[in-house]
Design goal:
This protein is α/β, with parallel strands linked by helices. It has 2 domains: about 1-60, no CATH class; about 75-155, no CATH class. The protein has helices spanning about 1-5, 20-30, 40-50, 75-85, 95-100, 130-155, and strands at about 10, 30-35, 55-60, 90-95, 115. The strands form 2 sheets. Strands 2-1-3 form a 3-stranded parallel beta sheet. A two-stranded antiparallel sheet has the order 4-5. Helix 4 crosses helix 6. Helix 2 (about 20-30) links the parallel strand 1 (about 10) and strand 2.
């Protein structure tokens, strides 16, 4: 529903928004054009500002689209934001998305995609750990949850 979609925002690589059409699409879909690989602090601040204002941040924890449909190493940005702002993460497992828009391709295909929304993950038990350990454990908990969700979807 639009009532939810209007509150979702994304942080995306600014290189994808250098032409008029892509800038229009970025605005339409609430994408903040900041490249997290180049401007990590700016991207994290943009995410934190949106979250503090009650918005929903959509993050792909691997940092990019998968090319083979398998899970790859997760980056810790989602864990940092969730633990520092004391917010839950709602895990989402996507299966088949790599077939719709393959990396390196301009073609979008019509393929079956399965989507499963998990229960919110809270990280309260990690709050007293040193930062790096806290972020690593939160990232691992998120990855394991999504891995289990994918296994259930594929069974």
């Amino acid at each position: 529903p639009y009532a939810i979609l209007k509150d979702i925002f994304h942080v995306g690589a600014s290189e994808f928004f250098q032409n008029r059409l892509m800038r229009f699409l970025a605005k339409l879909t609430n994408i903040v054009p900041i490249d997290p690989d180049i401007q990590l602090l700016k991207a994290m601040k943009a995410g934190a500002i949106g979250l503090r204002n009650g918005k929903i941040l959509n993050i792909y924890p691997e940092g990019e689209r998968a090319f083979d449909g398998e899970l790859h190493p997760f980056k810790k940005g989602a864990a940092i934001l969730a633990t520092e702002l004391n917010l839950p993460i709602v895990p989402v497992a996507l299966d088949g998305l790599h077939k719709v828009w393959a990396r390196g391709s301009n073609k979008i295909r019509f393929e079956k995609v399965k989507i499963h929304f998990g229960q919110p993950i809270y990280f309260e038990e990690l709050k007293d750990l040193p930062d790096e350990e806290k972020y690593a454990k939160a990232t691992e908990k998120l990855k394991e949850t999504i891995k289990e969700m994918l296994l259930e979807m594929r069974a």
